[in-house]
Amino acid sequence: MGIITEFFELFGAAYLGDFSKFMYQSGAYTSCFYFTVGIPLLVVFAYYIVLDHILLAQVRKWTIIGIVSSAVAALVCMGIAYQRIQGFTFMQNITSADVTSADVLAFGFIVFFYAALLYAVLSIALKSFSSRCRNIPF
Known about the structure:
Blueprint: H1 2-8, H2 18-26, H3 28-51, H4 59-91, H5 101-126
Helix pairs in contact: 2-4, 3-4, 3-5, 4-5
């Protein structure tokens, strides 16, 4: 779990104090990692292999799908982070947790960035399996 923690904290550049500490202690980083990887993977698989439709073979639609899937991953992970931290602090009887909505939002931006990057990389890797969307994104 240490490498996943470092992954989300941008290898120390985005350590968010109590937020990062409670995320680690509650085990929320692992769940968020699965969603950050799983959502773009499922969307790219569906786009290039399952759907593979000529109406989707446009860069604009590929970009919109990537932004929406990355936003969904970020929102899901922000929800997980909020719930896990609230549950952890309640169970541990911690009343002075210095976790703000800005910390959750910063975490959401990090997840969005990673999900969008993974969406682009997986698109390049899986586009050769498509017959109609082979030239998307380029």
